[in-house]
Amino acid sequence: ILASAFALFSLAACSPVQLDVPGGPGDGSWQQQASEIKLSNITYQVNVYSFADSDGDGWGDLRGVTQHLDYFDSLGVTALWLSPVQASGSYHGYDVTDYSVINPKLGTEADFMYLIDKAKARGIDIYMDYVLNHSGDQNPWFRQACAEPNGPYRDYYVFSDDPDSDMRNGKVDNFGGATYTRID
Question: Which residues pair with 82 in a beta bridge?
Answer without folding.
Answer: 46, 128
